[in-house]
Design brief:
Layout lengths: L4 H16 L8 H10 L18 H10 L3 H19 L11
Helix pairs in contact: 1-4, 2-4
């Protein structure tokens, strides 16, 4: 890769391929993990989470379905955060950060 933007481009291409595939990524444990890292199973919007956004219920349901331990779910969340940060790119000094 020739510059830092290349990784974000690759990750975005993979994310788009997963989202548009029509495959049920929740069915298989490995597929669910890939989807969770590239796209995310939890609500990532900055708002007060409630029943309409299903903030944590989907990932916890998948964890139970696939027998994922708490440390495995924590690792998925960590990897998702890394991918999300790479896709969002560096924050420029004049840009406001949202919590």
């Amino acid at each position: 890769m020739s510059n830092p933007g290349d990784l974000a481009d690759v990750l975005e291409w993979l994310r788009s391929a997963v989202v548009s595939s029509g495959r049920d990524y929740a069915y298989n444990s490995s597929d669910a993990w890939i989807f969770g890292v590239l796209v995310g199973w939890e609500c990532e919007e900055s708002h007060e989470h409630g029943p309409t956004c299903k903030a944590e219920t989907l990932l916890s349901t998948l964890a139970k379905t696939h027998g994922w331990r708490e440390d495995y779910v924590a690792r998925l969340r960590e990897h998702r955060a890394i991918v999300r940060a790479a896709l969002e790119g560096p924050v420029r000094p004049n840009e406001e950060q949202t919590a």
